[in-house]
Design a protein that fits this description.
- The structure is a single chain.
- The chain folds into two domains: 60 residues; 220 residues, 3-Layer(aba) Sandwich (Rossmann fold).
- 53% of the residues lie in helices and 11% in strands.
- It contains 14 helices and seven strands.
- Strands 2-1-3-4-5 form a five-stranded parallel β-sheet, with helices on both faces. The protein has a two-stranded antiparallel ribbon with strand order 6-7.
- α12 links the parallel β4 and β5.
- It starts with a helix and ends with a helix.
- The model has no long low-confidence stretch (mean pLDDT 90).
Length: 334
């Protein structure tokens, strides 16, 4: 329907231009007439503005940029363009028993960060970079699911058809949200809505949210404050802490090596640092190797590692740093 309306508008503007040309060329031909000159100028201006508007709309119809909650049309464009899944439902290659034969299997578990939210070329994610560094003797399996918590990630690992020799568990501060939901902690609706027009026009959608973001996003800040606050809720934290502890014990019982990666909030590194340390210490107490990503960017401008100014998912540079840190850990434990 969108393209039907769009091409209908093109035909409408073209017909206006043709009729205006015909009118001033063959019907209203007195060039000395002041009203004719004014009307010719105004009609040309209106047609030019309408044509320019259509060109702007056409540009944004193909413009793609992510946001944290995928609520803009540009973000939806991005996912349609870059988010292809294999038969198992993961953004990864199609692994087969033949491809995995005689190779050590490393499973990377996590959410949208592991799956590569905002990373156009999936070969630039930290899991893929790690696989490139390790070489053909290893197969790095990306089991990243967008928008799910730690418990769902573990369920995905148990259902995965190829048991791993080593597990890399990627955690970020949002992963506690599912635990809170399971405990019936109310989750406010943080994603705002706008006028109906912005859902009908790519250009209007972009400019509406662009100027909306020119000021601080109270709803986005509210969401992160709420999520971080869950770590100070005794009931939620103890339940989540128990889940994380069970992960380490499960890996040890299965004689499977576990490595944990903890990502901070890149748009508020100082406040998230204590929480990532809290998670990292939990695993270190079980002698499980941990890569605390906060340590990798200490003293640097954290927003420079975001995929774009409005999306706090890590960019390719940070994925590369995480891959390099993991590579060293894998070499040490092998």
């Amino acid at each position: 329907m969108y393209w039907i309306v769009f091409f209908g508008l093109i035909i409408f503007v073209a017909s206006l231009a043709l009729n205006a040309w015909y009118l001033f060329r063959y019907i209203w031909i007195n060039s000395a007439s002041r009203p004719r000159r004014v009307m010719r100028y105004l009609s040309g201006l209106v047609i030019a503005i309408m044509a320019a508007g259509l060109l702007v709309e056409l540009f944004f119809a193909f413009y793609a940029r992510t946001d944290p909650f995928i609520h803009t049309l540009a973000a939806q464009n991005w996912f349609r363009r870059y988010w292809q899944l294999n038969s198992l439902g993961y953004r990864d290659i199609e692994w087969t028993p033949d491809l995995l034969e005689s190779r050590a299997k490393i499973m990377v578990l996590g959410d949208s960060i592991v799956a590569g939210h905002g990373i156009e070329n999936q070969n630039n994610r930290f899991a893929d970079r790690l696989g490139q560094m390790l070489g053909d003797d290893y197969a790095v399996l990306n089991v990243g699911l967008h928008g799910v918590g730690t418990k769902t990630q573990l369920e995905a690992a148990l259902e995965y058809p190829y048991p791993p020799d080593l597990i890399i568990l990627s955690l970020d501060l949002d992963d506690i949200v599912d635990t809170a939901t399971a405990l019936d902690v109310a989750r406010p609706n943080f994603v705002p809505t706008g006028p109906r027009l912005i859902e009908e026009s790519y250009a209007a959608n972009y400019f509406y949210w662009h100027f909306h973001r020119a000021a601080p996003w109270p709803w986005a800040i509210h969401y992160q404050d709420w999520a971080r606050g869950l770590y100070h809720d005794p009931g939620v934290w103890e339940t989540y802490r128990s889940l994380l502890s069970d992960i380490g014990q499960f890996a040890q019982a299965q004689n499977t090596q576990l490595i944990v990666v903890v990502f901070p909030d890149l748009n508020n590194l100082s406040e998230s640092q204590t929480l990532t340390a809290q998670i990292a210490d939990l695993f270190r107490e079980q002698n499980i190797p941990v890569v605390d990503v906060t340590d990798l960017i200490e003293g640097e401008n954290a927003p420079a590692f975001m995929v774009n100014p409005v999306d706090w998912h890590p960019n390719e540079l940070l994925h590369q740093r995480v891959a390099e840190a993991l590579y060293q850990v894998v070499l040490e434990i092998q």
